[in-house]
Amino acid sequence: MMIGQALAERQYAALPMAEMTHMARLAKEAIRRGRLTMTLRELLAVGRAGRDLLFAFVEKRVAMVALEGAKIEPWRAMMNRADKFNAFLKKTPSVARF
Question: Which range marks the domain in which residue 63 is found?
Fold first, then answer.
């Protein structure tokens, strides 16, 4: 499946088969209704650009897990660090902050 290829290219863990099937069905319906920028023929013909479109489609709908050693965008790495820091602040006792 193209969705599986798109996830593998970006070094994300594969989705369970039920979730993969659900995403494929949602993408098919979105393409059929004209909600995506490509038709099904264009999606299959262009290769990389089609996989990029499918990856963006799935990324909006599913919380994905990056594989260990995967390149992470700088903005996403900063957000992950901020989330960890905020979690640390919540679990530590309140200290006078300046």
Answer: 2-68
The answer as to whether 92 is a domain residue is no
pTM (two decimals): 0.70
d(C-alpha 57, C-alpha 43), whole Å: 13
DSSP 8: H
CA dist 30 and 38 (Å) reads 10
Per-residue pLDDT, averaged over 35-47, amounts to 90
Into how many domains does the chain fold?
A: 1
From 59, 33, 28, 58, select the one nearest 43 (Cα to Cα).
Answer: 28
Task: Give the separation between CA 48 and CA 3, rounded to whole angstroms.
Answer: 11
What tokens does 58 get?
């799935």
pLDDT value of position 96: 58
Q: Report DSSP state, residue 94.
A: P
12 is written with which tokens? 């994300």
Q: Copy the structure tokens of residue 97.
A: 């902050």
